[in-house]
Design goal:
The chain has about 425 residues and is of the alpha+beta class. The chain has a single domain, classed as Cytochrome P450 (Cytochrome p450). Helix content is about 45%, strand content about 10%. The protein is built from 16 helices and 15 strands. The strands form five sheets. The chain has a six-stranded mixed sheet. Strand 6 and strand 7 form a beta hairpin. It is globular, with a radius of gyration of 22 Å. The protein starts with 14 loop residues before the first strand and ends with a helix. It binds protoporphyrin IX containing FE (HEM).
């Protein structure tokens, strides 16, 4: 899969034949990264106009902590669009992920209070409500595509932000398609040309409404924020909201979809988690490490430099593979074994450095409620492996588009017309 050559005409080396978005890589990303990591943990690939691929834990760790050399800012190297993915994808400017320190800090300061553990603890009921409702929708039938339940992170994010709930599926599919669909396909074009422009108008409309008439939601909080002693503009609020949507919609879904399929194949572990719910927190850290829902993200080199013996040039694009770092035997013993009690677990699934995931606590909380209710309420679920459908490519997010499953039917826990966590409180207690 990888074949190392000596050098390119521009002096970049070692050169490998590697493309994280290729069908070849998607067949077995773990094996593909394992080979690359062993041969050349820092290497140059000619795919996508050329990029460095960092696959060892050490290079990923070093580069993600050196924002002066490895920038997240939007630029025109390697095309136009979101700069933290390779190839770039057409997306609006995002704050704070596309801003380097020191400017970055004042923006991240606005996001931190709404994603801190205390704020996420206050969302417990809303997360529980949607998980209960989504499982209620299928529990009496005895069969379902489990991805329908895994829509929860999208609806929670839309509700939390204060966007119209009736559009949650459109937000989910459009933001998902941007990172998992193949450019040029109908799915990608529908997202980029139709759904996302429409949703941008909806989001901007809500931002304007909340500025005039604030409510108890995240958009109202953001329009009330200040930076540099001035009010945050509507464009800046949009840049933060659009990032929270793209962070919130697909990643937790990817984590849970991978875990649900794996737990079908490892029923002893499923039973262990059923008998010992206290093991779930550490198990989730291990699922994050093992599956790495965001496989890798990109940076751009700001100045000619030598990095771990490799000559990098200003403007070079660099992919930091969180997924590969998470399987590096230098840091993890038996990295290809999934051990739900692994501890400590210094995984890189949420990134490293200043841009480390702002939504980590929310992602964990949603994954925990989903997995807990799935294994308790659908304890004997069986996945039909022959009908599983993978994401079209595994370059940025990995997971399953379709997970057909059967299970013993069970009772609903909420009335069919339940609309809010208040219904949950009356029905469950
Ligand atoms: C399992 C779930 C998740 C995974 C695996 C994940 C992964 C990541 C990774 C790897 C980064 C680092 C970006 C970089 O270094 O360039 C990141 C950043 C970010 N994530 Fe997440 N994420 C998850 C859930 C969420 C959720 C639920 C939200 C919000 C609702 C969110 C919002 C963000 C934001 C705003 C950033 C940018 C932080 C910054 O630039 O300072 N993420 N995420």
């Amino acid at each position: 899969m990888t074949e190392t050559a000596s050098t390119t005409p521009t002096g970049r080396c070692p050169v490998v034949h590697f493309d994280h978005n290729s069908a070849e890589h998607a067949e077995d990303p773990v094996a593909s990264y394992r080979k690359l990591r062993a041969e050349a943990p820092v290497a140059w690939s000619d795919a996508h106009g050329g990029y460095w691929i960092l696959s060892g834990y050490k290079p990923v760790f070093e580069a993600s902590r050196d924002d002066d050399t490895f920038s997240s800012e939007r630029n025109s190297h390697g095309g136009e669009g979101l700069s933290v993915v390779i190839p770039k994808t057409p997306a609006p400017f995002h704050i704070p992920i596309e801003i380097d320190p020191p400017e970055f800090r004042k923006w991240r300061k606005l996001i931190n209070p709404i994603t801190a553990p205390a704020a996420i603890a206050r969302m417990e009921q809303i997360v529980k409500f949607y998980v209960t409702k989504f499982i209620d929708d299928i529990i009496e039938t005895g069969h379902a595509d489990m991805t329908s339940v895994i829509g929860v992170p999208a609806i929670v994010t839309v509700d939390w932000l204060g966007l119209p709930i009736e559009h949650w599926e459109r937000y989910a599919s459009a933001f998902h398609a941007l990172l998992i669909a193949v450019p040029g396909t109908e799915e990608f074009d529908q997202a980029v040309k139709v759904d996302l422009p429409y949703l941008e108008e909806v989001t901007r409309g809500i931002i304007a409404e909340r500025r005039a008439d604030p409510r108890d939601d995240i958009i109202s909080y953001l329009v009330g924020c200040e930076v540099d002693e001035r009010a945050v503009t509507d464009d800046e609020v949009f840049a933060m909201v659009d990032l929270l949507l793209s962070g919130g919609v697909g990643t937790t879904a990817s984590l849970v979809s991978n875990t649900v399929v794996w737990l079908h194949e490892h029923q002893d572990v499923r039973q262990d988690l059923l008998d010992h719910p206290e093991k779930m927190d550490r198990a989730i850290e291990e699922f994050l490490r093992f599956f790495s829902p965001t496989q890798g993200l990109a940076r751009t080199v700001t100045q000619d430099t030598e990095f771990m013996g490799c000559p990098m040039k200003q403007g070079d694009r660099v992919l930091l593979s969180w997924a590969s770092a998470n399987r590096d035997p230098e840091l993890f013993e038996a990295p290809d074994d999934l051990d739900i009690e692994r501890w400590p677990n210094r995984h890189t699934a949420f990134g490293i450095g200043v841009h480390r995931c702002a939504g980590a606590h929310l992602g964990r909380a949603m994954a925990k409620e989903l997995l807990t209710q799935i294994i308790h309420r659908m304890s004997d679920y069986e996945v039909d492996r022959s009908q599983l459908v993978r994401y079209p490519h595994q370059g940025t997010n990995n997971g399953w588009t379709s997970i057909p499953a059967t299970f013993t039917p069970g009772p609903r826990l909420l009335p069919a017309d339940a609309t809010s966590p208040a219904d949950l409180a009356t029905e469950l207690h």
